[in-house]
């Protein structure tokens, strides 16, 4: 694999479209390519500051806002407006601890939330009022699952669900009186399929345990979803190894398919990978695979199910053309961002077909 | 665009890994390629049944379970165990309305949840006990945002967050005493960049309004995130049109980049698309673009920022090779699933470079 020290445009890009960032699509675009190198990996938060720092210089505005209609706001007996005491009271008791991001956004500190629902409700209302008074835009509120009792409180305050992982629910609040520019959550799942063929022109195929009627008796390529933060090329190798026990090395991506409204109405990208076998002994994963074997390519392609399926025939055409070196696949090249040091992979061709007289797929 | 009636493997695949389905990665693989054509588009739910049908044949088992430690279970004065009345009571008052999926899973009907928290808590406990007694595995509980007060109740009952959209939070519960086989949520966001060059070898470039210091004065390609259910090729055309006002047509994907731990720790796939200009007049989107113009390719590539960035230099090399027809990009081909009729797009090469003596990228 070629390895160099490069800019990870995706990293920089997407980081900038995280908390407090911009909405997917149009606005999301501004966040891409060599953008905001200062972004942190964790939250896209570029700067953190104390509430004290946050208060400086904006006290009168905040005060006007906070007391506009509540002289004895939230039952607290505030001193006269010349005193410093009420700011200390606000700072110590009401405004949630938070960091700012590069888009005038606020990221609430999930580790320093109030102890109980009543305090949280009071702080959330005060904080929104305060953040609005100081010109903040997007608010990111991550509620750990063990604070789930805060969810209805945040929703009542006007927060919207953004995304969730097993450990937390992320909610957002867009303060300005204009369309939200906050980015959308993840939109795709990614799958891989491995085309593994040996010197005897036998393809590595499997029969699945959990299959619809249409797959009865059908031998297919090993396939699966890539795991969190997994590379396409390593995911394909892993799937083949797990399902069949055969070790392989990645050659290239020969094609990919894009479908929509799939799982949870999200989209699906599926990459067909050419893999070179490094071993031949088969040991199936019995939790999901019924059987696996090396099958003559001709026999594999002649299966009625495949004969009736133009898409799979096309994929097989491509794989066969690739075998004959009449087709350009995309090989993987590791690159590292000089901004955040994270690795990413650029997939592209490294050469034209060797036999140019052949009929490329 | 080639158009045929084909199997949408992604669609069938991912649908089978939805509610009640299998975990991402290994198990997820079983759900891919020509699998379970019977899956519904909405939830991957293949069959719906009434609680009455669900009860038949398993009453004694369920009863044993339900009354194991609660002779006067939940304060209800049940008749003796030979009577039918308590089943009617259970059916009418406690077990949540649900559908089953293809993996012995249960999908709770989000439109028929109990009216209040107390009733929900009671029904959830009773339902879990009941579903366990009848051998159910994964439980999918979608809570609309206007039922957010049910979230802490479900969490207390042992449900885990799975994913969230603005309108709802999806929670899951894996009943068997073994590792969960439920699929993961979406893992990727997808971005596009448009390389648009005219007959005078001028590239369409933009300067962004919201950019980090590193981008000051830098002219870059129009880029952005694709929108929900949007194609890569239409997303690239849209981004270019929105940012610059220039109409284009898609030629091919020349390369793509994969990065991890980006927005919300999800991964990012970024596709570089070659587009052919259909107009030249520039009209920028002032909400996010500072300026746009046609810039001589040579001048564009000579920008210090690009000169210092090997990755972008590689991308430009590829685009230039593609212009010289020395490079194979991946073109888009519409395909339709013969199972569910949904369209998907297969990206692959349609030919080898025309000039094989050139040095391909």
From TrEMBL, chains A, B:
Among its keywords, does the record have Zinc-finger? no
Protein's name according to its UniProt entry: Nudix hydrolase domain-containing protein
Q: Name one GO molecular function term.
A: NAD binding
Q: Which residues form the Nudix hydrolase domain?
A: 187-317
| Highest taxon, organism lineage | Eukaryota
CDD domains reported in the protein's UniProt record: NUDIX_ASFGF2_Nudt6 (cd04670)
Q: Which PROSITE patterns match?
A: NUDIX (PS51462), NUDIX_BOX (PS00893)
**Pfam families from the xrefs?**
NUDIX, Nudix_hydro
Q: Which UniProt keywords apply?
A: Hydrolase, Metal-binding
Enumerate the SUPFAM superfamilies for this protein.
Nudix
Q: Is the keyword Metal-binding assigned to this protein? A: yes
- Give the record's family classification: Belongs to the Nudix hydrolase family.
């Amino acid at each position: 694999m070629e390895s160099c020290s490069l800019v990870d445009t995706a990293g920089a890009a997407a980081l900038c479209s995280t908390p407090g960032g911009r909405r997917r699509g149009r606005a999301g675009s501004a966040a891409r390519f060599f953008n905001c190198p200062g972004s942190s990996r964790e939250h896209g938060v570029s700067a953190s500051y104390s509430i004290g720092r946050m208060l400086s210089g904006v006290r009168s505005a905040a005060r006007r806002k906070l007391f506009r209609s509540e002289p004895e706001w939230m039952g607290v007996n505030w001193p006269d407006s010349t005193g410093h005491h009420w700011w200390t009271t606000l700072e110590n008791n009401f405004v949630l601890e938070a960091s700012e991001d590069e888009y005038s956004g606020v990221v609430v500190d999930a580790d320093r939330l109030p102890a109980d629902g009543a305090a949280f409700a009071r702080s959330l209302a005060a904080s929104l009022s305060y953040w609005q008074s100081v010109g903040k835009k997007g608010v990111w509120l991550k509620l750990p699952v063990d604070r789930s009792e805060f969810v209805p409180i945040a929703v009542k305050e006007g927060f919207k669900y953004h995304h969730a992982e097993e450990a937390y629910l992320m909610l957002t609040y867009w303060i300005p009186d204009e369309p939200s520019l906050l980015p959308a959550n993840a939109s795709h799942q990614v799958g891989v399929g491995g085309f593994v063929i040996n010197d005897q022109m036998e393809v590595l195929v499997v029969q699945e345990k959990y299959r619809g009627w249409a797959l009865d008796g059908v031998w297919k390529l090993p396939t699966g979803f890539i795991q969190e933060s997994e590379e396409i090329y390593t995911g394909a190798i892993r799937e083949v190894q797990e399902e069949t026990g055969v070790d392989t090395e990645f050659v290239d991506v020969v094609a990919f398919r894009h479908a929509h409204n799939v799982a949870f109405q999200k989209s699906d990208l599926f990459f067909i990978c050419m893999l070179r076998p490094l071993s031949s002994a088969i040991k199936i994963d019995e939790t999901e695979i019924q059987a696996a074997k090396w099958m003559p390519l001709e026999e594999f392609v002649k299966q009625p199910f495949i004969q009736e399926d133009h898409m799979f025939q096309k994929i097989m055409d491509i794989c066969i053309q690739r075998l004959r070196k009449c087709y350009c696949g995309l090989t993987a090249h590791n690159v590292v961002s000089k901004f955040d040091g994270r690795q990413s992979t650029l997939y592209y061709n490294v050469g034209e077909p060797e036999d140019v007289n052949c009929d490329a797929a």
